[in-house]
Design brief:
Blueprint lengths: L2 H24 L33 H5 E2 L8 E3 L18 E9 L2 H13 L4 E6 L6 E9 L2 H15 L4 E5 L2
Parallel strand pairs: 1-4
Antiparallel strand pairs: 2-6, 3-5, 3-6, 4-5
Length: 172
């Protein structure tokens, strides 16, 4: 590079630096104002709303006893070898299986059995059935789409609680 090119480059750089220095000192370029005294932004202006709470019936019998979940007329006892383990029924819906753990006319006994079954980790419920003069309470595990899982539960309940259940298929 020649001396004249170097001189022109030095002159251009000097001019740019002087313009920047004049602009910086004159206040032409200002940094945006940032509040550095607080780190947490102000709370948003959101107004509170009132939530509607559902009315809950505290009667324990109604909470534990499933009402009309599975109509006893729509349950049928299925011997182990007669029904497929899984599949679809005539309406194209999957088979639904229930395990009847115990059936009794004493609600307290049914609630005790329900607690024992749930303590083993099973999802269980009580279904009220029978004519009005002879009410029965059935403790069920399920519903489940896999019959084999309920069959395993039946074996475990027999070993641990001495209860031999019956496998039912829900018929729609």
């Amino acid at each position: 590079m020649g001396k004249s090119v170097q001189a022109k480059l030095a002159l251009a750089l000097s001019v740019v630096l002087m313009i920047w220095l004049i602009a910086a000192l004159s206040g032409w370029y200002k940094r945006p104002a940032v509040d550095q005294t607080r780190r947490i932004p102000a709370a948003p202006g959101i107004s509170a709303i009132d939530l509607l709470m559902p009315q809950i019936d505290t009667n324990t019998t109604q909470d534990i006893v499933a009402k009309g979940l599975f109509d006893p007329d729509n349950l049928r006892l299925v011997p182990a070898g007669e029904a497929p383990i899984y599949g679809l029924d005539e309406q194209g819906m999957p088979f639904v299986w229930l395990l009847l753990v115990e059936e009794t006319d004493d609600l307290n006994k049914a609630e005790l059995t329900l607690g024992n079954v749930r303590s083993l980790g099973y999802k269980a419920f009580i279904q009220r059935s029978g004519p009005t003069e002879k009410v029965l309470y059935g403790v069920y595990i399920g519903p489940n789409l896999q019959r084999s899982r309920l069959h395993e539960a039946m074996t475990r309940l027999d070993k641990q609680l001495g209860i031999r259940g019956e496998l039912y298929q829900h018929v729609r």
